[in-house]
């Protein structure tokens, strides 16, 4: 599983997806990210993701982003976990 620190992320690298719930994201959005809640992303990944593009997955604690990255990697997507700490 690939990981980077948030300070290393640049928007040109690929789309940054914050998998927190909508309320948590609205209260404190991650700069340069789009919000797709964890459950929504995993249930509809074919709608949101393209296997030919890189994605960076983030959440506050790192637990949901780590799980999402492992699942999406298994499905063949180019995903990297972004660590906030």
Query: Judging by the overall fold, what is the CATH architecture?
Result: 3-Layer(aba) Sandwich
What's the CATH topology name? Answer: Oxidized Rhodanese, domain 1
Query: What share of the residues does DSSP label as strand, in percent?
Result: 25-35%
Count of individual beta strands = 5
> In what order do the strands lie side by side in the largest sheet?
1-5-4-2-3
Radius of gyration: 11 Å
Q: Helix/strand-derived class?
A: alpha/beta
Largest sheet data = 5 strands, parallel
CATH class: Alpha Beta
How would you characterize this protein structure?
This protein has 85 residues and is of the alpha/beta class. The protein has one domain (2-83): Rhodanese-like domain (Oxidized Rhodanese, domain 1), CATH 3.40.250. The chain is 33% helix and 26% strand. It has helices at residues 22-27, 38-43, 45-48, 63-74; strands spanning 2-5, 15-18, 33-35, 54-58, 78-83. The chain has a 5-stranded parallel beta sheet with strand order 1-5-4-2-3, covered by helices on one side. The model has no long low-confidence stretch (mean pLDDT 97).
Strand and helix layout:
Blueprint lengths: L1 E4 L9 E4 L3 H6 L5 E3 L2 H6 L1 H4 L5 E5 L4 H12 L3 E6 L2
Parallel strand pairs: 1-5, 2-3, 2-4, 4-5
In short:
The chain has 85 residues and is of the alpha/beta class. The protein has helices spanning 22-27, 38-43, 45-48, 63-74, and strands spanning 2-5, 15-18, 33-35, 54-58, 78-83.
């Amino acid at each position: 599983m690939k990981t980077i620190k948030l300070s290393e992320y640049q928007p040109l690298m690929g789309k940054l997806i914050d998998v927190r719930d909508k309320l948590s994201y609205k209260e404190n959005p991650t700069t340069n990210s789009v919000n797709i809640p964890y459950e929504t992303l995993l249930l509809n990944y074919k709608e949101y993701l393209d296997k030919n593009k890189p994605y960076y997955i983030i959440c506050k604690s790192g637990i949901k982003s780590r799980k999402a990255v492992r699942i999406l990697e298994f499905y063949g997507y180019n995903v990297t976990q972004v660590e906030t700490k």
